[in-house]
Design goal:
By secondary structure, the protein is α+β, with helices and mostly antiparallel strands. The chain has one domain: Electron Transport, Fmn-binding Protein, Chain A (Pnp Oxidase, Chain A, Roll), CATH 2.30.110. It has three helices and twelve strands.
Length: 162
Amino acid sequence: MSIDPSEYRRVLGHFPTGVTVVTGADDKGAAGMAIGSFASVSLDPPLVMFCPGNTSASWLRIKETGSFCVNVLGEDQKDVCGVFAGKADDKFEGIDWTTATTGSPVIPGSLAVIDCEIHAILDGGDHDIVVGLVTSLSTADDAGERGPLLFFQGGYGRYEGM
């Protein structure tokens, strides 16, 4: 059976995803990429996962560090997502970031920050499936007042609550 990639993308676009930026820092500096394929895996041990393209230059740099930080973007951070979804040489230019315990960059204004050590990397076709062991995590002081940045059917949206 053959699935047309454009039809695959169209159909799966009906599932809304939260938007994150996964970061790391190597001897060349900070690296980061926008990721929509992020999920919780396990409470005990505390594991999360994300799926970067296995040829992504940002991912290849982060992978070598052995750790990463997931920055969960808020609805007001669409511009931040655009920067990290692009191919700029220095995606952190103009962003005053801090450092997580692993040394990975923390993006200011993120709703939540999840710092991890790489636990496993599995083959996922043209993507890697990266499982991280959570070493620390936190939420922003105003996380309950802002909604998450969502991606749905090729565009950005917001959570309106129940």
